[in-house]
Amino acid sequence: MTTMANSIRTGPDERGHFGIFGGRYVAETLMPLILDLEQAYKDAKNDPAFAAEVENLNTHYTGRPSPLYFAERLTEHLGGAKIYFKRDELNHTGSHKINNCIGQILLAKRMGKTRIIAETGAGQHGVATATVCARFGLPCVVYMGATDVERQKPNVFRMKLLGAEIVPVTAGAGTLKDAMNEALRDWVTNVDNTYYLIGTAAGPHPYPELVRDFQSVIGKELREQIMAAEGRLPDAIVAAVGGGSNAIGMFHPFLDDKDVQIVGVEAGGRGLQGEEHCASLTAGKPGVLHGNRTYLLQDDDGQILEGHSISAGLDYPGIGPEHSWLKEIGRVNYVPIMDDEALNAFQMLTRVEGIIPALEPSHALAHVIKMAPTMDKDQIIVMNLCGRGDKDVFTVGGMLGFDL
Amino acid sequence: MTETRIDRRFKACAQAGRPALVTFITAGDPDLKTSQAVLDALPAAGADVIELGMPFSDPMAEGVPIQLATQRALKAGQTMAKTLQMVRDFRKKDDDTPIVLMGYYNPIYVRDPKAFVREAKDAGVDGLIIVDIPPEADDELCIPALEAGINFIRLATPTTDDARLPAVLANTSGFVYYVSVTGITGSAIADTTRVASAVNRIKGHTSLPVAVGFGVKTADQAAEIGKDADGVVVGSVLVNAIRDSLDDAGFATDNTVSAVTTLVADLASGVARARRS
Asked: Half-sphere exposure of residue A76, counting CA atoms within 13 Å on the CB side?
């Protein structure tokens, strides 16, 4: 990768820091493993055969490149900037999560690991992990908060079909953060044979870097596709952020393009006044959790809050460390979107474009719906449509008063 | 660094020809008043060194017993300020028994590490064990702690090989805490022969006392581990004793303090006979 002298795409530093964020805050039992992983990833990056294997699976297994779609009817409906979608919801397994899983399962194989564990919130990462484990014949254990098991039943069944063992986690509020704690406890117990396949661009170094790199296929394809379609880069790119993997994958290749406005959309839940939201960048403060320093929802005594979002995939009180840094340096603007706004956007896209989005990108869409009418008709917004909404129809049905 | 209560206590135990009994409880479990009473009663029951857990919402390295103890304490309103006050109140009665605060980094980070170590020293804290801050980040908390006169005690684990041990031991003082298993607190005890060889391996790298924990539940195990180790750490079994003493609504009973002290006395008899044979 070529880097400019004043590039902001060169992080993290050798100790895994993006500014003050990131790092490796883990128990001693895990330190040697994390250092091994770092070395294995360095070696893989320098091995053309590894890149070729990733690309081959991306093309023939996932179905990449994902299309760049001009949403003509939505553009007309909103009456402002031209709206494009990067269609990562069309990937095999229905979201961007597969991009990262393919890279990491190949890494796990290189390291000789024989057992895979993962955490999942909405179940998209769990499904993608169970999928690659089936594809490579490795046993898979997925930790999932008990609350999420309940609200994401279709994905729970998909994982079981794929041969994964699902462990419901009842500690705390039974959501993504609790699932991650339990996955870490498994890892520390089974260090010899187990690979922890983290689903988002967070956790101890080198996870934020390697997850970003595997997801950056989104932004790299987008650059070529938008140049082919419009002959120029977009005016704005928008993505939802929970842990932030789809967003960093889309954003990273554009960070040095100063004319491209970048917006990350957080889950505002039921509003930022109380604790029922997951807007860690807008309403949290820096702390240390799950191996990295980053913005966290926490009280004055440093206890982590549970947060809330209608979307299980955004229901996490932290955020990838590179996002924390991009917020601090002002390169990316992070905004909250409330549950009801996301629900309205979900319905609008379904009716106007015939695409049922997942609740996570529905947050990004709700912001696009706000910003597009304020922009000129010759301006361009690209949004990452990072997941499809099939998994959410029960949740949405419940909220809209349908008994499914 | 000048000699601390921890140094003096391990030296005294060594002179008495036995390992130190290191006892863990979670501060504020099941409530502040009972927890203070348990803490105050530990030395007389036979505890040589006290580890006082600072409750954290996300105790990633703990098994179920300490997770539940943490939840009980937080539910009862425990805070870092209250934990430090417990140490101050303990020190009014006991100026010799070392207290080591054990927990996770975030509650310290949000208070500012430098301010925290000064406050802790002033309260009468002798050492810190922070699970999620490796030697690679020594400048953040370990060095400020040493400068404030607080021992920084590191965990060494079965995955800490000879190549890595020097880095782990570099700024460690007070004692080395050997985690006998790869796993979470309260796991099954490891094969004692392997523990003994690991302890002796670590002693090849340091003159510091080596204490062993994670999974010690009975006086016999304490006696067995204590043949080679300079200290035996017990935690999960003590917080389980607290749990088992609570009433149906989860409140402390008249038996709560004695449930812990009885068990500590029994474990103390184990370490006392560790090297008689």
From this structure: 5
The kind and range of the H/E element at A215 are helix A207-215
Distance CA B41, CA B47 (A): 9
Query: For residues A302 and B29, what is the distance between their CA atoms, to the nearest angstrom?
Result: 18
Return the exposure string of B146-175: e unless at least 16 CB atoms fall within 10 Å of the residue's CB, then b: bebebbbbbbbbbbbeeebbeebbeebbbb
Is A198 near chain B, with CB under 8 Å? no
Nearest by CB to A304, which of B58, B134, B159? B58
Closest in A15, A28, A285 to B160, CB measured:
A28
- ipTM rounded to 2 decimals: 0.95
Of the candidates A32, A288, A301, which has its C-beta nearest B132's C-beta? A288
Classified as helix, coil or strand, A181 is helix
- Chain B residues closer than 8 Å to A302 by CB: 56, 80, 106-111
Interchain CB distance below 8 Å, B158 and A29? yes
The average confidence (pLDDT) of chain A is: 95
B80: nearest CA in chain A? A301
Does residue A346 contact residue A278 with C-beta atoms inside 8 Å? no
Chain A interface mutation, best of B159, B169, B187, highest count of A Cβ atoms under 10 Å: B159
Residue of B182, B214, B236 to mutate, testing the A interface (most A Cβ within 10 Å of its Cβ): B182
Q: Beta-carbon neighbour count of residue A397 at 10 Å?
A: 12
pLDDT in tens, B199-242: 999 999 999 999 999 889 999 999 999 999 999 999 999 999 99
Could you tell me if B202 lies within 8 Å of chain A, comparing CB atoms? Answer: no
Which of these, A365, A303, A151, A11, lies nearest to B77 by C-alpha position?
A: A303
Cross-strand pairs, A68: A86
Pairing type for strands A194-196 and A285-289 reads: unpaired
pLDDT tens digits for chain B (277 residues)? 789 999 999 999 999 999 999 999 999 999 999 999 999 999 999 999 999 999 999 999 999 999 999 999 999 999 999 999 999 999 999 999 999 999 999 999 999 999 999 999 999 999 999 999 999 999 999 999 999 999 999 999 998 989 999 999 999 999 999 998 888 888 877 788 888 999 999 999 999 999 999 889 999 999 999 999 999 999 999 999 999 999 999 999 999 999 999 999 999 999 999 988 6
Element (H, E) at A348: helix A339-353
Q: How far is B112 from chain A (nearest CA, A)?
A: 11
Q: Is A171 on the interface with B (CB under 8 A)?
A: yes
* pLDDT tens sequence across A361-399: 999 999 999 999 999 999 999 999 999 998 888 889 988
Among all residues of chain A, which has the CA nearest to that of B71? A172
Q: A269 touching B, CB under 8 A?
A: no
Cβ-based neighbour number of residue B93 at 10 Å: 9
CB A167 within 8 A of CB A195: no
